[in-house]
């Protein structure tokens, strides 16, 4: 999956022929000391007044996008905030199919492109640094709730700071876990990769990475050489009141007591049925440890089903770029659009239930 994402074109903005009721805006957040020196590029979707020309956010030669109106006038009211964390090697614009539906349902939705694990800038050495991703999410919350000098009054009037949720997919699910109060166990993670040679562990085996859209050679990542204190620190952001974790990474490497101590609702979703979900993201045991956890599995889907719908001819484009993962294939007879509809319903219903006034 990393091969294609690093070579992918930036998300195009294609004007559709129908109206949208969702606004979208791109904002930048300058690095602060707690952000580990990371400038962030953030996409914000929000309920909007009618009018304006929508564009397709997240569309490119391979993936379809979803419509939203750039810089549209916000709708009247104050809305819950949902922060998004994308998967490794992806971009937050690839979650536009979900973000637009949440905005239609009355949420402000915001997510950063995480430096070091975003399409075109993704390296094995950056992937385990989940404390940075958690800090990114907190920086987004700071900006949209008007905290301190990082705040932004235009969002402060729109966002209900007492109703904040987080949604994460894959590596983003691990970041969301940490922001909700989970703590990672470095030795457990290293032991897992000692015996597993697929997915994230295969990425750590080294060979290639991507910097400034170009492929670079990298060495093997020694997980035991990672800063243990940073990897295992608490990244709890107490402003987060609800978390949705879709195929969350590091599933074999969380401190059990930290999960038992999480008080907020935790909604776990796995893509696939029993026996088909990769061990690095299976969440049935995680939900059993969390006091307010729920679990759902989406049948006839696979890990890649959370990615956007693929355009006609996308598989050929992927193959020509050197991508050998079946990014456009799902787990059964269901279309990706149908799988997305179920995911939207599950995630929206969880957030509406847990962030109700």
Protein model, in words:
There is one protein chain. The chain has twelve helices and 15 strands. The protein has an eleven-stranded mixed β-sheet with strand order 1-4-5-2-3-7-6-10-13-14-15, sandwiched between helices. The longest helix is centred in the C-terminal third of the chain and has 19 residues. The protein is globular.
Computed Rg = 19 Å
The helicity comes to: 25-40%
- What is the count of helical runs? 12
- Estimate the global geometry from the Cα principal axes: globular
> What is the typical, i.e. mean, pLDDT?
91
Low-confidence stretches: 1-20
DSSP strand tally: 15
- Percent of residues in beta strands: 15-25%
Order of strands across the main sheet: 1-4-5-2-3-7-6-10-13-14-15
Class from secondary-structure proportions? alpha/beta
Note the run of SSEs as H and E. Answer: HEEEEEEHEEEHHEHHHEEHEHEHEHH
Q: Mind describing the biggest β-sheet?
A: 11 strands, mixed
- Report, as a whole number of angstroms, the end-to-end distance: 40 Å
């Amino acid at each position: 999956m990393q091969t294609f994402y690093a070579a992918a074109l930036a998300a195009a903005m294609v004007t559709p022929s129908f109206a949208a009721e969702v606004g979208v805006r791109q904002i930048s957040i300058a690095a602060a000391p707690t952000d580990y020196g990371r400038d962030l590029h953030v996409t914000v979707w929000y309920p909007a007044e009618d009018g304006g020309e929508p564009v397709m956010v997240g569309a490119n030669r391979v993936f379809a996008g979803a419509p939203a109106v750039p810089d549209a006038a916000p709708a009247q009211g104050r809305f819950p905030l949902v922060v998004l964390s994308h998967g490794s090697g992806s971009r937050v614009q690839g979650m536009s199919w979900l973000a637009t539906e949440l905005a239609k349902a009355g949420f402000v939705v915001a997510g950063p492109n995480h430096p070091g694990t975003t399409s075109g800038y993704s390296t094995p050495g950056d992937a385990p640094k989940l404390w940075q991703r958690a800090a990114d999410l907190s920086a987004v919350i700071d900006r949209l709730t008007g905290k301190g000098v990082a705040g932004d009054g235009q969002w402060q009037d729109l966002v209900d700071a007492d109703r904040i949720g987080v949604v994460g997919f894959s590596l983003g699910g691990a970041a969301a876990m940490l922001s909700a109060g989970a703590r990672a166990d470095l030795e457990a993670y290293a032991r897992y990769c000692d015996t597993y040679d697929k997915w994230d562990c295969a990425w750590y085996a080294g060979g290639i990475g991507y910097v400034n859209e170009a492929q670079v050679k990298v060495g093997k990542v020694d997980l035991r050489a990672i800063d243990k204190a940073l990897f295992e620190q608490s990244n709890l952001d107490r402003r987060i009141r609800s978390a949705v974790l879709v195929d969350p990474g590091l599933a074999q490497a969380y401190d059990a007591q930290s999960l038992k101590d999480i008080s907020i609702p935790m909604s776990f979703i796995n893509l696939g049925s029993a026996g088909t979900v990769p061990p690095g993201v299976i969440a049935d045991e995680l939900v059993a440890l969390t006091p307010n956890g729920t679990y759902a599995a989406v049948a006839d889907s696979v890990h890649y089903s959370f990615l956007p719908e693929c355009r006609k001819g996308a598989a050929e484009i992927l193959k020509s770029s050197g991508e050998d993962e079946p990014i456009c294939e799902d787990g059964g007879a269901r279309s990706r659009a149908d799988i997305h509809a179920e995911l939207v319903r599950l995630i929206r219903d969880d957030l509406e239930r847990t962030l109700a006034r």
